[in-house]
């Protein structure tokens, strides 16, 4: 079987790369620095042709996005000289902006396409060893994003769209048995809701061939099957008639491409889908019911996506959930080479040739797990192979796409080593989220609090569909507001207990102390109308945010008035904690 052999070849290559990761890192840094020695950014830093790690660290400072923004702006405006890279920057990637508030511009070039393909192939090779897929298709809920042309004539769009548009993408997808069920017109359709409907329809048309169900982020898979619950009868009607609903799908290019697949009435398939849906209880196991030959569900399920794992597991029935890779618009970091590990404990093994990595040790002042306080003790960055198991770090990357000692802003914990390269557990983004005075809570702390309070709901068969938060300082003392969208109405006593538990679950000493002293007021739980987070998603999409990279904002500041207004305008019940009364 040639494909199997090539998977084994990819694994052998990965084994070789990770055996002496320190040497591969030295070589990678040498390549990046020698290729780009003549760039404006590196010239004049005093490297004088040296490419070793010590000289690099001594001459080139750590940088944040704000530091390199002026360089990227010049490239976007048309400066074609060697500003950050010797080779051309082929387009601009826009980060999703849903976690940080604003969208960052980042350089994109052919090197990033290459490393993306390497990461896809590596992760697939390991997945294929655990869950062999010999042929077939992938039902991929992926969406190209809008693009625009910068003043200097470069295309600006999301990194994922830059990848989907590359020549290599489709051939790699074929090579790794992940050929998308839907035609390109669906992926790049102008309207997200229409594309989602068509992805579902195409998936049903190829139901027996579907081997993998995936999306970039798990949220998109959950959203797809929540939508399926609402539109399945219409999908069946379209299949039965052999004609696409004139109201659901109006974009001409999308209609044309999908109508070609839906050429003839197929009442047998429509009946089969309806029969399978009718046999389900509360949509448990809908994915394997509709796609009986699917082997697993794949997508990013870590970090802010962890919240959706429970729902995904419900839809997936017994199908394995495989957590997808760790990377950013800036570049890739690691692949999941242990696909059988449940998403909650997934780790990412750093590929030592896709960039040069450093790690800033983060030591929590209270000796506990590293917090997200931007001011707490940082030590000198260490190299990829110098990290310590169990410790927390901020990731710093130097890439082939013009980023030098760039602080990614993510906190990771070293879970172990694969050969000599570390396996990272994603912890959270480093930016501080909830703070009123001396308290500090990040998205991970919020997630733990929500998980803890949601346990009370489980007994009532209720779920938190999505959540967000806000530090309300409009009155003194300020207090935390947590927004919850639930799947059904909750009893007031139960919700009051949840509110108390949320308040208690923030264990940061600054918070607890301030609560006891009355310097922070009682936590407020605001229960939202159903589908409020769909409104939030639509709000982001209407402002050009990419659905394929959408992450629900876990903390909404006053600078995000639009979203705050949607959340606050859809509140159905309010509770104040009595935990510290
Ligand atoms: P963006 O460039 O907007 O797509 O966002 C990239 C950010 O998404 C990263 O810096 C991480 O914070 C987060 N992210 C990406 N991949 C993962 C992953 N596998 N697990 C958790 N968070 C991730």
UniProtKB/TrEMBL annotation:
Pfam families: GH3, GH3_C, GH3_M
Domain spans labelled GH3 C-terminal: 445-558
GO-annotated cellular components: cytoplasm
Statement: the UniProt record of this protein carries the keyword Ligase: yes
Record keyword Ligase present: yes
Highest taxon of source: Eukaryota
A molecular-function term among this protein's GO annotations: acid-amino acid ligase activity
Entry keywords, A to Z: Ligase
Domain GH3 middle as annotated: residue spans: 348-429
Family: Belongs to the IAA-amido conjugating enzyme family.
Protein name stated in the entry: Jasmonic acid-amido synthetase JAR1-like
